[in-house]
C-alpha cells in the first residue's frame, strides 16, 4: 500500500478537484438553484486550493509511468487552475445578469480542470486520451450552456461533432503507434522511435499530431474555432481561449519531446507546416471579421502558430519560449474577454467591432485597458506580447527556423491592421448619433480586465523577473537536440 499512497499523494491536485466537484454537485442537488453563488465561491476556493496542492506536491511518476509530476506539469497546473478560477468568477457575474444562474456551471469548469491536469501530467497514450476526453466532455456542455440561445446550441453541436472527429484521429494514431512500438508509455515509444523510425510509426505520429492540433485550434484544423467563439457564452470562450490551450500545448510538447525524441526531424516538418498555415489563416482571416469574438478566434489561431513554433524548435529553449508565450497570451486573452464582458449598452452586450466607436468618452479607463491588451496581443514592444514573441523567435532562430520566424513576423504585421482598427474606432471615431452610453460595468469583470492590462503594461518587466526563471525550470530536461 505505500506505493498507492505515494501515487495518490502525487496526484493530489486532481483528486482534490474531483472529490470537491462531487461534493459541490451533491450540495447543489440538495439546495437547488439558490446555491449557484455559493457554489461559484466554493469552486474558486477549490481551484485555488488545488493550485496550492499542485505547487507544494512531490515530484515523480505514478501508476506505472502513466502519470508524471515534474516542474513542467506543476507550472502548467497552477496556471490552468488560476485561469479556470477567473473563468468561474466571470461566469458567475454573467449568469446573474442573464438570469440563468445555475450551480452546474462552476462544477463543469472544475471537472474540465481535472481533465486539463491529467493532460499535462500524461505519461502514456492512455492517460493522454483520458485527459483529453475528460476535459472535452465538460467543454462540450459549457459551449451550449445558454441553451435558449440558438447560436450557443449551434456552437455546442459543432464543437461536439468536430471534437469527436479529433478524438477519432487521436485514437487511430495512438493505435498505430502502439501496434508498432508495442507499448503505450512515452519512454518505451521513444526508445523504439530512436531505433526504428519506420513509416508506420511516423504515420501514427502524424495522426496523433493532427488530433492534438485540432484541440489547440491550429490551422488547418481550426474550422470549429470561429463559430464556437462567436456562439458560445463569452465567459466560456474566455475559458476556451486560455486554460485548455495551455493544457493542450503542454501535452503536445510532452508527447513529442518525450515520446518521439529520435524522430524530431519528421515531426518538426509537420509542425512547421502547421505554424505557417496558422499564420496565414489567423492573420488574413481576421481582416474580414466584424464580430469581436470571431476576431479573437482568428487571433488565437495565429498565436497558436507562434506557440507551436517553439515546440517545433525541439530544444529546451524552445519549450521555455512556448510556456512563456502561452502564459503571457493567457493573461492578455483573459483580460480581453473580461473587458468584453464589462461592456454593454441598454442591456445588450457589445459584440460588434463597430460598437466600440467613441468608447473613450464614457469609458476612458476601459479604453486604455483595451488599447494595452490589443497592442500586447499584437506583439508591440514593450508590452507583454512582444516578450512572448521575442522568446519564440529567438528559440526558432537558434534551432535554424529563422525563415519560419520571419513568416510569423510578417503575419504579425498583417494582424496589426485589425488591432489598430479597433484602437482607431475607440479613440478617433465618433459614436453614432443617438447611441446610448455604456451600462454600469460589472465589478468583477472590470477589475480582472484592468489587472490583466496592468500586467501587460507596465508591470510586465517586473513579472518577467519571476516568470522567466520559473519557465526555465519547467523546461529543464526537455529537447530533442
Mind explaining what this structure looks like?
The chain is an all-alpha fold and 481 residues long. It folds into two domains: 190 residues, no CATH class; 207 residues, no CATH class. The chain contains 21 helices and four strands. The strands form two sheets. Strands 1-2 form a two-stranded antiparallel sheet. Strand 1 and strand 2 form a beta hairpin. Helix 7 packs antiparallel against helix 9 and helix 9 runs parallel beside helix 13. The radius of gyration is 21 Å and the shape is globular. The two termini are 39 Å apart. The model has no long low-confidence stretch (mean pLDDT 90). Belongs to the complex I subunit 2 family. This is NADH-quinone oxidoreductase subunit N. Keywords: Cell membrane, Membrane, NAD, Quinone, Translocase, Transmembrane, Transmembrane helix, Transport, Ubiquinone. Its main location: membrane. It is found in: Cell membrane; Endomembrane system; Membrane.
Q: Structurally, how many domains make up the residues? A: 2
How far is it from the N-terminal to the C-terminal residue, by CA?
Answer: 39 Å
- Describe the strand arrangement of the main beta sheet, using strand numbers: 1-2
Strand content: under 5%
What is the radius of gyration computed over CA atoms, rounded to a whole number of angstroms? 21 Å
Helical content band: over 70%
The number of helical segments is 21
Secondary-structure-derived class: mainly alpha
Residue runs with pLDDT of under 50 for 5 or more positions:
none
Shape: globular
What is the averaged pLDDT score? 90
Number of strands: 4
Main sheet record: 2 strands, antiparallel
SSE order, one letter for each helix or strand: HHHEEHHHHHHHHHHHHEEHHHHHH
Subcellular location: Cell membrane; Endomembrane system; Membrane
Membrane topology: Multi-pass membrane protein
Domain NADH:quinone oxidoreductase/Mrp antiporter transmembrane: 122-413
Transmembrane segments: 6-31, 38-60, 72-91, 103-120, 126-145, 157-181, 201-224, 236-255, 267-288, 295-315, 321-343, 364-387, 399-420, 447-467
